[in-house]
Amino acid sequence: MVSEDNKTFMSSKYNPNEIEKDRYRYWVDGKFFEATGDKEKEPFTIVIPPPNVTGRLHLGHAWDTTMQDTISRMKRMQGYDVLWLPGMDHAGIATQAKVEAKLKEQGKNRHDLGREKFLDVAWDWKEEYADFIRSQWEKLGLGLDYSRERFTLDDGLSKAVREVFVKLYEKGLIYRGEYIINWDPDTKTALSDIEVEYAEVQGKFYHMRYPIKDSDETIEIATTRPETMLGDTAVAVHPDDERYQHLIGKTVILPIVGREIEIVADSYVDMEMGSGAVKITPAHDPNDFEIGNRHDLERVLVMNGDGSMNENAGRYQGMDRFECREQIVKDLQEQGVLFEIEDHVHQVGHSERSGAVVEPYLSTQWFVNMQPLADAAIELQNGDGKVNFFPDRFERTYLHWMENIRDWCISRQLWWGHRIPAWYHKETGEMYVGKEAPADIENWEQDEDVLDTWFSSALWPFSTMGWPDENAEDFKRYFPTDVLVTGYDIIFFWVARMIFQSKQFTGKRPFKDVLIHGLIRDAEGRKMSKSLGNGVDPMDVIDKYGADSLRYFLLTGSTPGQDLRFHWEKVEATWNFANKVWNASRFSLMNMENITYDDIDLTREKSLADKWILTRLNETIEQVTKNTNKYEFGEAGRHLYNFIWDELCDWYIEMAKLPLYGDDEEQKKTTRSVLAYVLDQTMRMLHPYMPFITEEIWQQLPHEGESITIAKWPEVRPEFQDDEAANVMQRLISIIKSVRNIRSEVDTPLSKPIKLFIKTEDEAIAAELENNRSYLERFCNPSELIIATDVEAPSKAMSAVVTGAELFLPLEGLIDFDKEIERLEKELKKWNSEVERVQKKLANDGFVNKAPQRVVDEERQKEKDYLEKQAKVKARLDELKA
C-alpha cells in the first residue's frame, strides 16, 4: 500500500505472500510479543507444547499453536501482560534414532564416535532443526516471546530435573529394581506402558505337552511365543482345579532344555482358559514375573537386548527371536511335544518410536512409584484449584487412567537426554544419588542411562519459569499458567504427568484450563501418515493460500475435542473470505480521503444503516468475545464471518455508497466516521484469527498506536445499541431480498425498473418504510413504489410476505402469461411423473425390505425433493391462472 497525492491505495489484488512477507519481523523487532512484567496488568500465561527437534512441524502442530496464538493475541489486546513461552523438546529416543540414521548413511555408528562426540552431533542436529521450527513459527505468525525460549536440555531445566529426581528418590518415590519392562529391541531401550501401541496381529497358538517326571502323564500348555519356553521355570495351575490336584508340587521335564521345573498352584490362573495350565517364564512376561515372585522362582533370561537369543538359549544362541521361534517349532514337532498349531488373532505391542514388536523383558531399571502421586492428583480435581478440561468429558478419561495407574519406568538406554543422577562406587558398588556428582568423582561411575523424555516434559510449566528457585521473578508472576492446548492423544503421556508433578513440587495445578483438540485427518477421515501418502505440509498450504487462510480454516473447522478433516476446498473458501475483507477495506479506504483518527466523530446524526451496523457490531463483539473466551473458535468465527461478509460487505458498504456518492457533506463525514470505526473494530476482532491481513489493513486505517497486536480489544458500547433501528433494517433487508428473489424467478434483471406495491400492517410500519424509501429505491429499482396500509393487490402479480408487510410485483410487461403457463404445465407434468415413479417404488415392499438402506433413503429423499418442486410449480400456476 502506498500514499500518493494525499490518497491511500491498496493493491487491487489480495496477495497473502506479499503482505505476510516482512510483517513478522516488524512484530518481533517491535517486541510486541514480549511479556512486560507490568504490575498494573494481570498476567496471562501459556507455555507452548514443545515440539520435538526431530523434523519439521506438521498440520497438527499448526492447528495446536494457532489456537494458542489466537488466545494469547486476544488476551494481549484485552490488556493482560501475556507470556506465551516458546521452546522445544530433546525427544530422547526419537531424536537419537534420527541422528543414528544419519550416521549410518555415513557408514558410522554412535559407538564409533563415543558418547561425548555423539552428543556433539546430536546438539548440531538440534540447532539445525530448531532453526527449521522457528522459521515455521514465523510463517504461521505465532506471537511468541523468544526472549524466554527454552529447551528441555537447557542448564536451568536440567537443574529442575535433578532436583525432582533426587527429591522423589529421597521420599522413596523413585526406586531401582529388576522388573519386567517393555523393551524395544531395535532402539535397545526400555519403554513406558504408554509408549507401546497395540495392533491386531494374525498369530498362532502352539499347543504342547510337557512330560511329568517319573510318570507317563503329560500336562498340556499353550503359548503364542514358543521361543520363551527356554526360560520356563514352572507350570502353574489353579489351586481349586480338581484336574491337577494330584500334580501340584510335582515336576515336569522342560522339553529341549531338559530342566526340571515345578508345578505350582496360583489363583491367577484361569481354570476356564484352555487346559487350565500355563507355562511360567518370569523373565519374559509381566504376569509370570509376579507369579514368580510369589513362588520364589528363578528368572531365566533367554534373549539379548537386540532380540537375539543368548547363552541361556542353548543351541539357539545367536538366532533372532523370530528365527528361533520357527526352528523351535520344527524341533518340538519332531519330538512329538507340539501336537497342534491353532490360528490366533491377538493384540501385539509395538514400539511407538521404531515400530518394532515390543518384548516383555527382565531388566534392572529406574521406576517412579506412581500411586501416591496419582492419589494427590486425583484429590486436586476435588477442590477449587482443579484443572478445568475443555471439553469436560476428557476429565473422566484422565481420572480413569490415574485411578488405574502403574509404576512408571523412567530409565532409557540412550545417550541423548538427562543422564540419571546416580553414581556407583567402582570398588564397593555403593550407590549415590545426588544433584551434584560425588566429590571424589574419580572413584565413581555415573549411571549410563538417561531419563524418559516425558520426565523433563512433565516439569515444563514450572521449570521454564525458573523453578526450583521459588523466588524467580517469572515463577512468582506467571505460574500457574492459564491454559494448555494439546491433543487428546497425549493426555496420559504429558497432561497427567504435568499435573501430578506440579502438585507434588509446587502444591498447585500447572494450568487453570486444558483445551483438548482432536487429530487432523484427510478429507476421507483417515489419519495422515507417510505410508498412505496423504500428509499435508502446512508450509505448502501457506505458500498457496497464505497463513491467514490456513489459520482461519484450522480454527473454525471443528469443535473442541473433535477431529478435523483437511479439505483444500475449504482453505480456498477462507482465502475467498480474506479476499472479500481486502476488497471491502480497499473500497472503504478509497472513500475516506484524508480522514485521520481524530476526525472520527460518532456523535453526529446517523442514518438507519449507521445505527444498524453499529448495533450489529456491538452484538458481534459480544458473541466473538464470549465464544473465544470459551475456546469455541468455530462459533466465534461463524459470527465474524456472517457479520463481515453478509452485513458489513454486502449490505452496509453498499448502503454507504448513497451518502458517499451524494452531495450532503455532513452525511459523508458521518458515514466515513462510522465506516472507519466499524472497520477498525472489525479488524481488531478478526486479528487473533487472521493476524497478517488485519495488521496490513489496520495500518492504513485512521488509527492510534504502533500495531494492532497491542491495540485495545473491542468492547460493547451501550450508546450504540439501537434495537429499533436493527428491526427496521431487518425488515428492509427482507423486502429487498424478496424482491430480488421474485426478479430471479421471472428472469428480470435489477437494471429493469418494475412496479412495487407494499401493503403494511399499520401506519407506523408504513412511516418507517417511507422514511427509508431511498434504500428501497436504490436496491429494488422500482419504476413506481407505493407504500400504504390500504394497497390493493393487483390481479396478476407475484407476491411475498415479510414481517409486518406484503409485497406485490405486477407482472404485466414482465412476462408473457400464456407462454409462462405453458412452460409451467410442462414442468408440472414432469414432476408429476417423477413423484408417481418414486412413490410406486417406495410402495413396493420387496424394494423397501431388500434394497440396501442407503438406496431406500436416497429414494425417500428424492420423493421429498420432487414433492417440494411439484408444490412450487402448482402454486406458481395457480397464481398465474388466477
List keywords for this structure.
882 residues, alpha/beta, four-stranded antiparallel sheet, four-stranded mixed sheet, 28 helices, 31 strands, 45% helix, disordered N terminus
SSE topology sketch:
Blueprint (H helix, E strand, L loop, with lengths): L1 E3 L2 E3 L6 H5 L2 H7 L13 E5 L11 H19 L3 E5 L1 E2 L3 H14 L4 H4 L1 H26 L9 E2 L3 H16 L3 E11 L4 E3 L4 E16 L6 E6 L10 E4 L13 E3 L6 E6 L11 E4 L5 H10 L25 H15 L2 E14 L7 E10 L1 H11 L7 E3 L2 H11 L4 E2 L1 E2 L9 E4 L5 E3 L10 E3 L3 E2 L1 H5 L2 H4 L9 H6 L2 E7 L3 H16 L4 E7 L2 E2 L16 H8 L1 H10 L7 E2 L2 H23 L17 H22 L3 H28 L4 H22 L4 H10 L22 H23 L8 E7 L2 H9 L1 H8 L1 E7 L8 E6 L2 E6 L6 H26 L2 H6 L2 H29 L1
Parallel strand pairs: 3-4, 5-6, 11-13, 17-25, 24-25, 26-27, 28-29
Antiparallel strand pairs: 1-2, 7-8, 7-16, 9-10, 9-15, 11-14, 12-13, 16-18, 19-23, 20-21, 20-22, 28-31, 30-31
Q: SS-based structural class?
A: alpha/beta
Major sheet: 4 strands, antiparallel
Poorly predicted runs are 1-8
Estimate percent helicity: 40-55%
Shape: globular
Binned strand content: 15-25%
CA-CA gap between termini: 59 Å
Arithmetic mean pLDDT: 92
C-alpha Rg (nearest Å)? 37 Å
Strand arrangement within the widest β-sheet reads 8-7-16-18
